[in-house]
């Protein structure tokens, strides 16, 4: 009977992950607050905001700046303008500027030209208002040589002629309005301005006078932007960009990713050099390039449409969702699908968020088991580290909550299995896979290091694949803030750095820092390339035993401290052998990475990697795992035995107080969850309802 139940849960799990692309499938309806609940919540938000004296620049809750600083607020305000008012050009400009700020290199160069061509030019009929219904197509990636230059000057007989009036500008760029586009990202939000009304008035004064663009930006503000953007076109790297763009034609992001993967095993050094030049070019454009224009447009929109939005159903929907965000998350909000694994204090399940249908991983840790092992600090440390790290290369924390007996972590569901599983299936990884996985692991480690954490548990088992093949680091239970006296082995033997197990003359453990992670990375990279961890191999075991080690564990430690691995020329080319050798340097002060991750990224082994595409997440993975149960069988995972010690353990008030600050909601994750839900409703044109709606509760109705 138990096997039958496991089979049913396996089938449900496979069905759930296979239907993700079909859209969210909620199981319960969103709860709507009463007027009294909403009023109480709004007052609470205002009080909490007033207490944040260390952040005087925080926008006033529920006002324009505050609303657009939330991804969900911007999404619903944008939807109101486009769907209800029919005025889209200016808000599209703001959205494009936000996207521009998140780009680098060639993507920033292309996006700069796109914004210029579509928003900072004159409309075809200068005296007419921009049409809200015009949807004339424009190239998706301007920068093409066919596009007109919109610089503030034209070249005539080799001399510069300044554009100082509307007529001249309109003759250069007589194109129709840009197409109306909808927000398709789940993380688009606007940084609130910290300017005073006087500052804004001064910017508006600089905006007066010709030339005037289609979005109401003109005068010295427009001239300043166009002058700076002109430098981009005059750079050698920009011409390379145009040639590359014309060659690739109209390939979309997926086709570009596939093309990059096909080229992974061939030399891309010339292309990489071009990317580096373009990166330098884009750095010449200041982060504030469009700031004044964006402020002018935002003020315009505020004056025209903010009052209307506040009286709309879109605003009501926003407040209802934000109230739901701040309510206490409980275990009943999630529905268990299948056991995925077992940790030190409990099980990891695949689960579904009832209201949105979003799939997550639920890590359950029993408070009694934590107390028995005196591991409260480990549990608290993992929760804090997960909350601190927000990176596409590390499994993210979405929610943390608790019950009387357990604490819960809701995390990204990585359905593709871990790299150890796939390594056991393949024997070793291809060059393209080694580069891709290695690059993402480097960026994941750097994300931890940037926040002052050392990971200490890097191994293939802790590198998980998503359904699309993207790899992320997981299990941050041993990650810890670096301190001057940090010492003691942590993690998995064979991936430990020498300084973790080295002792001085008095027998005291050595102190260590971030560099232990780069040694572990060297172990993993060598394992990806050859299929064998150099310090867990038979060679390492024999080396240690021959030197007098009496156990397998001691032999591995001895090899880690004293053996210099050899790299088979049949599996390791010259660059692969060199990077592994330098990462596995016994001396942490000379180990590759001592000067930061960029030192590793610039090693010849990674010369074929387009770091821009990796960092921006545009590079498609070289391997997509099957939509299957990429995990051990539930019977193999097993369950915890409630022995005598467990039954006799009692949780006191002091034990409960340890978890007073455990609860957590990732605002960005919540916004993304709701926006994904709303996008599906927009695309289908109908409300997204649960398959089975329980209407017995009067407070539960559809938002």
TrEMBL record:
Coiled coil (UniProt feature): none
Domain RGS: residue ranges: 63-121
Keyword set includes Aminoacyl-tRNA synthetase: no
Binding site for ATP: 363
Domain AGC-kinase C-terminal residue range list: 607-674
Keywords associated with the record: ATP-binding, Kinase, Nucleotide-binding, Serine/threonine-protein kinase, Transferase
CDD domains hit by this protein: STKc_AGC
Species per Swiss-Prot/TrEMBL record: Discostella pseudostelligera
GO molecular function, one term: ATP binding
Bias kind Polar residues: ranges: 120-138, 150-161
Domain Protein kinase: 334-606
Residue ranges of the region described as Disordered: 120-161
UniProt-recorded name of the protein: G protein-coupled receptor kinase
